[in-house]
Design a protein that fits this description.
The complex is a heterodimer of chains A (162) and B (409).
Chain A lengths: L1 E5 L6 H4 L10 H5 L10 H4 L5 E3 L12 H8 L4 E4 L4 H10 L3 E3 L10 E5 L4 E4 L4 E4 L5 H8 L3 H8 L6
Parallel strand pairs in A: 1-2, 2-3, 3-4
Antiparallel strand pairs in A: 1-5, 5-6, 6-7
Chain B lengths: L5 H10 L8 E5 L2 E5 L3 H10 L11 E4 L9 H17 L2 E3 L6 H7 L8 E5 L12 E4 L2 H10 L1 E5 L3 E7 L9 H12 L8 E5 L8 H9 L8 E4 L23 E6 L6 E3 L7 E3 L10 E4 L1 H4 L2 H11 L9 E4 L4 H9 L2 H8 L2 E2 L20 E4 L15 E4 L2 H10 L7
Helix pairs in contact in B: 2-5, 6-7, 9-11, 9-12
Classes of the chains: A alpha/beta (162), B alpha/beta (409).
């Protein structure tokens, strides 16, 4: 089952993937350095499919899409935050990294997490708690359900708002 | 019609019907750009979307500024990819030495009042100085703009910042105002919103000053920042976009700009802002002046005025990156560059320089940097073992003269 790795408020994109590693199209090289300044033991503890959980304003700072790409390439199955920085939020959904805004979560590091992206319901198995994520606008939900904006535009050829 | 903010007016004009905060809309984009950090991924996504031709080649711009000239073969190859794409797609490419994307777009009059502009760089709101609606986006959103010429947006709520006063104290600049606003709104206080600047001080602010104010809305989490057009002077005729008198704001922030003292953001967050006076005497070894925040002619002149005829303190270095080729040419013509070099500054290529931690002056372990940039996140300049203080160019210049944080005279 997916384990939660919990981080503080205002985790900026420089901490998710430092600028010196961003100039590349090789996604595995991004995964190798994800969170390395913030949490040097991340790559040892993290198991593919685990969940990143944060407080306020996760992903603030740079517009670098390499930040969600690095998390996705590392095998992160979901990022939960109280709220996200706006560019990171759009980027994550556009590249197919699931993200859910849950303003009132009380998830702690090591908690076992189950989730359903379609309904936005997250179950904290360890604490026997259930959280409801904020609903996405229909256009974002559709992009997420297609697995990202590339697949969405290949299918729809244009944006559909409702 | 219900009264509107500037953001609502610009988005309504493009959507073709009135839109208000909280609504979704699809709007045509007047211009878009990407840099060497974001363009390679955008080009890849554009091609994966099935893109063969840009929707509007004359509205798309590529700028090589983040790691320019290329520090290694990996980045050199990404630059080649951008050059090849521009040549195939007949879009503009601004190669190394042209300058920082945002300064290049303004120098070349690419963005105009009332425009909607999308940039694959978080400091794209800088163009709000021109009374435009400009947003930072990621590479895949930009790829969709390249393909369709459009973007979907949620119309932002707006925060009104009213700048009172007719002048600033000596040694105080637009950077000090921007830092004060970041302090009051905090690093997430304007998330998803537009920061709209008003007040009588606008009549006394230059385009450069306005760019500083909008540039740092990125450090408040804002979607965009827009300066009301009072006092905006441009070398061409334009239709200014004013907010309606009764427009709705989520928050109104009133700042007595005339009473402000020099400000400094201390490590490791841009909203950790204090008066410079509280940190006078803190030792520094490295000063940096440049970036899309403070690399313009007036910034270099402010530093030169402090450094003229004097020398850096022993053991201190100063790196200066003019924001664009035009800035460099102007600063050469009026002797500003000569003054800075004579004082001991190292002038580097026009571009983002050490701000993005890739090259051109990464600090060493334990070093304390005083920088005129916009972000001081841990590791921002390439070394998480260093500390970054953010201040105005005049404060940076005063500090490199003494070797410790100092007030500009």
């Amino acid at each position: 089952m997916a384990k939660a790795h919990v981080y503080a408020d205002n985790i900026d994109t420089d901490r998710i993937i430092p600028g010196k590693y961003t100039k590349t199209l090789d996604l595995s090289s991004l995964a190798a350095h994800v969170m390395e300044d913030l949490d040097p033991s991340f790559s040892e503890r993290f198991v593919q499919g685990d969940v990143i959980v944060a407080g306020d304003n996760f992903g603030c700072g740079s517009s670098r899409e390499q930040a969600p790409l690095a998390l996705k390439a590392a095998g992160v199955s979901l990022v939960i935050a109280r709220f996200f920085a706006r560019i990171f939020f759009r980027n994550a959904i556009n590249i197919g990294l699931p993200v859910l805004e849950i303003p009132d979560h009380t998830i702690q590091s090591g908690d076992e997490i189950q989730f359903d992206l379609a309904t936005g319901i997250v179950i904290n198995v360890t604490r026997n708690e259930t959280y409801q994520a904020n609903q996405l606008p229909p256009v974002m939900l559709a992009i997420m359900q297609e697995g990202g904006l590339v697949a969405y535009l290949k299918k729809h050829k244009d944006f559909i708002l409702s | 019609m219900k009264p509107q903010t500037i953001a609502e007016k610009i988005l309504s004009a493009h959507a073709g019907y009135p839109v208000y905060a909280g609504e979704l809309c699809i709007v045509p984009v007047d211009g878009a750009m990407a840099t060497d950090t974001t363009a390679p991924l955008a080009i890849k996504a554009f091609e994966e979307m099935g893109g063969k031709k840009l929707a509007a080649p004359d509205k798309f711009h590529l700028i090589i500024d983040h790691a320019a000239p290329a520090p290694n073969e990996r980045i050199a190859n990404l630059h080649q990819l951008m050059r090849n794409f521009a040549s195939k797609q007949h879009c503009a490419l601004y190669d190394i030495g042209s300058g920082i994307c945002h300064q290049v777009m303004v120098d070349h009059h690419t963005v105009k009042p009332g425009d909607i502009f999308m940039g694959a760089d978080s400091h794209t709101p800088t163009y709000g100085a021109l009374n435009a609606f400009a947003c930072g986006v990621g590479s895949t959103d930009l790829a969709a703009v390249m393909l369709t010429g459009k973007i979907w947006l949620k119309v932002p709520h707006s925060i009104q910042v009213i700048l009172h006063g007719h002048h600033l104290q000596p040694g105080v600049s637009a950077k000090d105002i921007a830092l004060e606003v970041v302090k009051q709104l905090t690093i997430s206080g304007a998330t998803y919103q537009s920061v709209e600047y008003h007040g009588e001080l606008l009549h006394h602010l230059t385009l450069s000053d306005r760019m500083v104010l909008c540039n740092m809305v990125a450090e408040m989490g804002a979607k965009t920042g827009i300066v009301s057009p009072e006092g905006l002077q441009l070398p061409y005729l334009f239709n200014p976009v004013f907010a309606d008198k009764e427009a709705a704001y989520t928050r109104v922030l009133e700042i007595d700009a005339a009473a402000l003292h020099p400000k400094i953001a201390i490590p490791h967050s841009p909203d950790n802002v204090h008066d410079v006076s509280a940190y006078v005497g803190t030792p520094i070894t490295y000063g940096f002046i440049g970036t899309c925040t403070n690399g313009r002619l007036s910034d270099l002149q402010a530093a030169a005025n402090v450094l003229r005829g004097r020398s850096l303190a022993p053991g201190v270095r100063l790196v200066i990156a003019p924001a664009s080729r035009q800035v460099l040419l102007d600063a050469l013509q009026d002797g500003t560059i000569q003054t800075l070099i004579a004082a001991g500054a190292a002038i580097i290529n026009s571009g983002c320089g050490p701000c993005v931690g890739t090259h051109d002056g990464v600090p060493g372990d334990g070093e304390v940097v005083i920088s005129a940039a916009n972000r001081n996140f841990q590791g921002r300049m390439g070394n998480p073992q260093s500390k970054i203080f953010l201040a105005s160019p005049a404060t940076v210049a005063a500090s490199v003269l003494t070797g410790c944080i100092s007030l500009p005279k």
